[in-house]
Amino acid sequence: MTEAKNFTSVKEFILLGLTSHRKTQLLLFGIILIIYLLTVLGNILIIILVKVNSNLHTPMYYFLSHLAWVDMCYVTTIMPLMLTHLLTGDGAISFAFCMVQIYIAVTLGGAEILLLGVMAYDRYLAICCPLLYPVLMDKCCQLQCSSACWVTPSLVCLIYIVCLLCQNYCGPNQINSFICEVPVVLKLACSDTRIAEAIVFVIGGLFLLVPLSILLISYGFILHSVLQMKSGGWHKAFSTCGSHLIVISMFYGPLLWVYIIPKTDSAADRDKQITIFYVLITPLLNSVVYTLRNKDFHRAVAKIL
């Protein structure tokens, strides 16, 4: 019996989902399916418009197209399986697939965090250093920033996966969530997880707080510059940055709650409800905020039509 505990005996996890009520599950299936389709279509629209319209070949829209790719891949990693579980009422997911979902989702989430920081820095340069902006944010810099946003989290996420695979899972195997996430899977480990939890906390803290600091500092300088404007240009600056800040607050707030703030086991139900914001709502908001409220995209659509 002692030897058995040295090996992972759990072959699959059971995702409890948002609810066990069958009619509510079917209702959520319809709502989430609509959100998924709108998110994918909205982000595809952004990618196509940025690609085909020469007026959108600027650093801001270059990074926005990368953000659209991240959001589209992110929801496709999570929502189809979530929809399947809601439709069938069976939340089973294999151990291997759970690890794959964590790796892809955390990598894409990390890419979005870095992209939001880069986009804030881009807005800072455009508004506060307009004369140097073309030099500081040239094609080479854009490529380097976007590459770092994709590669860095994929490498860092390997540490998370190693921490998870080094644990023993001998039961229970029920996850009180609708997706596999590092904190909830670690809670199911039979072995001592203090070192793994410390690693996850430190890496998560650095990955969240460093870009967030860049965001706050950038927008602090932007706000200062905007308030110094005597012309009517501050209206456009506030509109652009205000939309960006809405998405950021909806994305960072829940992430900080789930990954950084210590909680008791009784907060599990609240955690999965908060997770909805950065899993379902933020990817949809990105496409809505950056297209429906953006005059450049309106002109691009009108030109294509």
TrEMBL record:
Main location: membrane
Subcellular location per the Swiss-Prot or TrEMBL entry: Cell membrane
Transmembrane segments: 26-50, 62-87, 93-116, 198-222, 242-262, 274-292
PROSITE patterns listed in its UniProt record: G_PROTEIN_RECEP_F1_1 (PS00237), G_PROTEIN_RECEP_F1_2 (PS50262)
Keywords: Cell membrane, G-protein coupled receptor, Membrane, Olfaction, Receptor, Sensory transduction, Transducer, Transmembrane, Transmembrane helix
Domain annotation G-protein coupled receptors family 1 profile: ranges: 42-290
One example GO MF annotation: olfactory receptor activity
GO cellular component: plasma membrane
Membrane topology: Multi-pass membrane protein
Family of the protein in this entry: Belongs to the G-protein coupled receptor 1 family.
Protein name: Olfactory receptor
UniProt organism field: Laticauda laticaudata (Blue-ringed sea krait)
